[in-house]
Structures are given as structure tokens and as C-alpha cells.
Amino acid sequence: MYYVEEYNGFTIYETKEFKLEHPSFMLLGLPDTGLVASISSSYLVDALKMEEVGGIDSYRYFPPIAVIHNGESKMPIRIFHRKNLLVIISELPISPGAIHPLAFMLVDYAQKKGVTHIVSPIGLGVPHRMEVEKPATYGLSTSKDGGELLSKFGVKKFQEGFIVGPYAVILKEAKRRKVSNIVIFAEAFIDFPDPAAAVEVLSILTKMFNVEVDLKPLIEKAEEIRLKTRELMMNTKKVMERMRKGYEQQLPLMYVF
Amino acid sequence: MSSRRIRDMLREFEKEIEEAIEEILDNIMGTYEAKPLWSKDGTLEPLVSVVEKEDKYVITIDLPLANLETLSITGKYNYIELRCKLKQSVKLSDWPMSRTEFREYRKTITLPNDADVAKFEIKKHVEYSIIEIIVPKKKT
Questions:
Q1: Does residue B56 share a domain with residue B25?
Q2: pLDDT per position as a tens digit, B68-115
Q3: Residue B22: which domain range?
Q4: Which of A192, A218, A229, A233 should be substituted to probe chain B, the one whose Cβ sees the most B Cβ atoms within 10 Å?
Q5: A257, part of any domain
Q6: Looking at the 3D structure of chain B, how many domains does it have?
Q7: For an interface test with B, which of A67, A128, A223 has the most B Cβ atoms less than 10 Å from its Cβ?
Q8: Overall average pLDDT of the A168-192 stretch
Q9: Which residue of A has its CA nearest to B125?
Q10: CATH number at residue A133
Q11: pTM for the model
């Protein structure tokens, strides 16, 4: 084990030494609406053949689960690296009690690693998703540089609304600690996995990270992905109900004036 | 206060306590459903969303890889039964938990007693492989 750090009930492990080139990005794949973050992050890791360099576990916040992949035991949250990119993917939805300590830990880790931008891909649950042929995308950033990156790629600004869940806490904590957090939203199904929304997010991410990734296989395998991620979506939905995710459908007071 | 009313109140109170304890445990251990959405008889359970409106229930069902021409829906008492074959059978070859070939979606959805399940309507969104079942509420 190359590096171990305990933080608020979580333990972060680095199993390999790696050098993060700059400017750097830390992409977060935490299960959320439409599994947009999970699908886009996993697809990127696979397409870029990123190296697994560590993981995150918790005896306090996770149930006693070991994830087995390719015949090896893995941590519930895995860390991947390639050049200037870190990707963090969780196999399990983050329960309400774990959101704050995990969010604080991730922002702290990003600061320690000197990450330039934390990137949060979020599904924006919309009831009219079936009437939408191509999900619209929006962006938000806590830093001027992040905002300029979004403008450079023509991403419309997310002006008004609520965000609920781990990405909301990460956004607030990143702003408080003056860490750049770029949030990219894509319209998505509220209750079902949405690979088409993940494609829209990835089309922005690949430009931002300056990587070439063929998205055609993701489009072709969309129905298969929806079938295989039913259980993760079911558990994510249950967690989202607990954290009152429905708030995102409400109009904030600031919008009124 | 009648004894029946007291019993009802105690049952309600017991239910609230159970829900509060479940929420505390969920916050500590995570809200993870242990039930798999597949069965060794070759059937898969689809994801379902039920939304109550003023005069109806809208059930949305995600049916990826389904052959919607084989869709069969029946409404009986207060439940809706759905069956739909897959376009082709699916096998999860690298996963030792299941050696089954999955061929069909199957789901029974229970609705409140005011749902008039005999009068359901179906809307198919073929481009998304999603269906909506609209069940009106009984007129009082």
C-alpha cells in the first residue's frame, strides 16, 4: 500500500504511486439521477484504459460488502488515473449519513493532490424526458477558470434551481475552500438509467479533458446498459428518496424575484 | 375514545417508530435493497415508477431490449400484471451468480383500492423502449 489516510470514518488508499499532470481534473462517478455520473465515468475509464491506483472504503458508512472484479477484491469506491485525469467511481449509492464526510474528504483529497478542477457530472431529472430527443446540457462552476472552460465549449449556464445529494455538498465545500468545481448537468430520466444523457455529458468532458473517445459503442449498448444497471438504479432511487431528491423539482424563492 | 380508535392510534404510532428506526439504520448502514431483479426461471423485473395524479395513476416501466410487440398487460382486482419477451435472450456469462438465460420481463404492480384497473390504457414510447400504463381512479 503506497498511501493510506483516515478521514472522518473513511479510509483512502493509494495502491500505486502516480504523477498527476497539470492542469488536472478529478471526475466524480457517484450514483445519482439517471446514473449519468456512473455511466459516463465508467465508460471513460474503460475507453481510456485508465489504471486503477487506489480506492476508498468505510467500515462506518458502508455495509459489509466486498466487490469482486476480474477475480480480485476491490474497494467499493475505486480511483483511476491517466496523465492529468483522476476518476473516482462508486459501486454503491452514497447513503445520506455518509454524504457530508465523503464530500469533505473528496474536496480535501483534491486539494492535497493539487487537482485543478473537480468535475461533477449530474443527471437533471426532468418529468418530460420522454419528449426530449437530445438531452440539453448546462454547466456551473465555483471558479472563473472553470466558467471560462464551460463557455469555451458552449455549455449554457445553469441559472436557477436546487441540487440535492453528494454533488450539492461537494459544490458548497469546494466553494468554501476555494477549490474549482465544475458541474455539468444533462436532462435525464428521474427513475431510470439514462445512457443517452451520459453521452451528452461525455461529449463535453472529452473536449474538456482533451481526449479522443468513440461514443458510438455507448450509444449502441445503451439498452444493454439500462438492463444491467437496474439494481444499481433501484438502490440509488431509494437513497435519493431518503435525501428528499424531489426538492430539485421545486422552484427556489430567488427565482421569483 | 373507543378501544378500536385507541388500537388504530397505537398501530399508527408503532408504524411511525418502525419507519424512524429504519431511517436511522439506513443513514448508518446505507439504504441498499438486497432483493435481486432477476429470477432463475429466466425472468427479469423491470424498473417501475408509479405517480399518483388527481384522477389517475401513471405507471412508467423501463423495458430495455424488450420486444414490445409481445407486451401483455392484465388488470385484476387492484393489481396490474405485465409480461414482455426480450428481443433476444440475455446471458450474463462472466457472473457466477446466474447461469440463467433471461428471456422475459415480468412484474406485478399493486395499486391502491381506488384504482380502476379494468380501465387501464397503454402508451408505448418505442424509441425509448418505455411504456406508460394509465389507470384512472374510480369515480366516487
A1: no
A2: 999 999 999 899 999 999 999 888 766 666 577 899 999 999 999 999
A3: 1-32
A4: A192
A5: no
A6: 2
A7: A223
A8: 96
A9: A130
A10: 3.40.50.10900
A11: 0.89
